[in-house]
Design goal:
The chain is mainly alpha-helical. It is 88% helix and 0% strand. The protein has five helices and no strands.
Length: 153
């Protein structure tokens, strides 16, 4: 059976791939494809955050009684990344490659640091504490992640 760590890390990679697509389109000044790719990337990121904040984190907190720990840090980082997503989206809309690049670089660094913490600390804790619920939890997470990508298309 797939673990929470494997499942959520795979979604991290999917978001990373979408960001690379945006980066290439912006670098080539192909603004239509850049906007389309950014829409998919943004939706993927926001639904990833939603899957964690609405489903995974509350279940972890309920199971462990830990409310002021790693999930609180992850929520704060999600808020920062939402701001960077909005700034990058505005730069793509304005066809401002320099502004986009600055925001995207900051976002990428933050995503990398954030993903390491989740994949090496929080998700393994979830695997340990939510093992009995994984059979029902993963389809619920999948539904949230999939709905975001379908809506963006």
């Amino acid at each position: 059976m797939q673990t929470i760590t494997d499942f959520m890390a795979s979604d991290h990679r999917s978001c990373d791939e979408l960001l690379v697509t945006v980066e290439h389109a912006v670098a080539d000044r192909r603004w239509g494809p850049a906007r389309a790719a950014f829409t998919l990337f943004r939706a993927g990121m926001l639904h990833h955050f939603s899957a964690e904040e609405a489903i995974l984190f509350p279940l972890f907190e309920q199971s462990t009684g830990i409310f002021r720990g790693p999930t609180q840090v992850m929520r704060a980082e999600h808020a920062q990344m939402r701001q960077l997503l909005a700034a990058a989206e505005a730069a793509v809309a304005a066809q401002d490659a320099d502004d986009y690049s600055g925001n995207a670089e900051t976002l990428l660094i933050m995503m990398q640091q954030h993903n390491v913490k989740e994949e090496n600390v929080l998700y393994p804790m979830c695997d340990q504490h939510l093992a009995a619920q994984v059979a029902t939890l993963l389809p619920e997470l999948q539904q949230e992640l999939t709905s975001g990508r379908e809506l963006a298309r």
